[in-house]
Amino acid sequence: MSYTFRAQIAKNRRASAFLCLFMALLLTAVGWAVGYLADPSFGVAGAVLFAVIGVVLWIYVQTSGHKAVLQISRARRATHEEDQILYNVGHEVAIAAGVPLPTLYVIEDSSPNAFATGLDPRDGIICVTTGLLEKLDRDELQGVVAHEMAHIRNNDIRLMTTLALTVGLIVLVRDLILRGWLRMGGRRGRRGEGNAVLLALAVALLVLAPIFAVLLHLAVSRQREFLADATAVQFTRYPDGLARALEKIASDPDELEAANKATEHMYIVSPFQKLHERSNLFSTHPPIRERIRRLRAMGIERRHESRTVPPVVQEDRSASIDDTP
Question: Are 111 and 59 in contact (CB under 8 A)?
């Protein structure tokens, strides 16, 4: 298996695309179930309606801001005077990423951590804790900032917000439709009794869809963390810096007071998941040790590639430099 950052980026993008497609199909299936329970002849119409709703949600997210989390986290705007190193690192990574410098914020908290928000690279926001600035060296800080910059450039915040709204919509529809249907005594539409098997399938979809939707949302979140790690290496060309940062953040004993379950998924490392703990289907982040292992493997692969450069190529490069007038 190749552990170059390019191979990891391609792999995680494919996985994310597949999971997002599955979520879209699940939303469409819920639409069919809603239409079928209303009237067996409305199944297809319900599927089309919910597909359109999915598109509307995407457009809504495209044009909406996402900065309320800064107020919840009690973050302050970073300044050149107090946070010069953060600004310097931010400028370096922004140039490597090819995006404007995000607006930088700082949370007064001794626990090292960071997150990104903003739905577009043009209004990106990176927020770090004072603990991160104090406890990480420059290479490690650069790795963390690159990871958050990757989320911004990859439009992860937009994607995850859309998926979260989709999950909320599925749960809301499930509750409304099943309650109304049960109050009617489970009666089917006026135009016919419909098929008993399809009826059972529609009810099962509405019952199980929220569970599948939550699992898909969390699976996409974990894949986007792997993708951001690999993209950060593309920016810095130094995977060991981010790997060391993840170790320090996950093993730090201080509790992040600004975090809660609603904002957990946004941080580079879950504030509630330590280095020794394993991830599961309901985790917002992949296992820390697995992330570190992949980053270390990328570092080994990169060092191997640099050692295998043919001497002839090196000679040709020096010759071309000497020939330059």
Answer: no
pLDDT at position 319, please? 38
- 162 pLDDT band, cuts 50/70/90, is confident
User: Using CA atoms, how far apart are residues 100 and 46, in angstroms rounded to an integer?
Assistant: 42
What pLDDT digit, counting tens, does each position of 185-194 carry?
555 544 445 5
Q: Tell me how crowded residue 265 is: count the other CB atoms within 10 A of its CB.
A: 19
Return the pLDDT at 119.
Answer: 74
- Please tell me the number of Cα atoms within 13 Å of 36 on its side-chain side: 22
Helices (H), the chain: 5-38, 43-62, 68-72, 84-97, 130-135, 138-153, 156-183, 196-236, 239-251, 288-307, 311-322
- What's the length of the chain? 325
Domains and CATH numbers, the chain: 5-65+164-209 (no CATH), 68-155+225-305 (3.30.2010.10)
∠ CA 4-7-9, rounded to 5°: 105
Q: Among all residues, which ones are annotated catalytic?
A: 148
For residue 93, give the nearest of 154, 147, 173, 25 by alpha carbon: 147
pLDDT of res. 254:
92
Which amino acid makes up residue 289?
R
170's tokens: 């599925």
Tell me whether residue 34 is exposed, middle or buried, using C-beta atoms within 10 angstroms of its C-beta: 0 to 12, 13 to 18, 19 or more.
Answer: buried
Q: How far apart are CA 184 and CA 80, in angstroms?
A: 64
- pTM for this prediction: 0.78
Look at the block and give the residue holding tokens 């990891």: 8
Which pLDDT tens digit goes with each residue over 105-146? 999 999 999 999 887 788 899 999 999 999 999 999 999 999
Q: Could you tell me if 159 and 220 are in contact, meaning their C-beta atoms sit under 8 angstroms apart?
A: yes
Tell me, what amino acid is at 57? L
Mean pLDDT over each residue of the chain, to the nearest integer: 82
Whether the Cβ atoms of residue 136 and residue 248 lie closer than 8 Å to each other: yes
d(CA 36, CA 203): 10
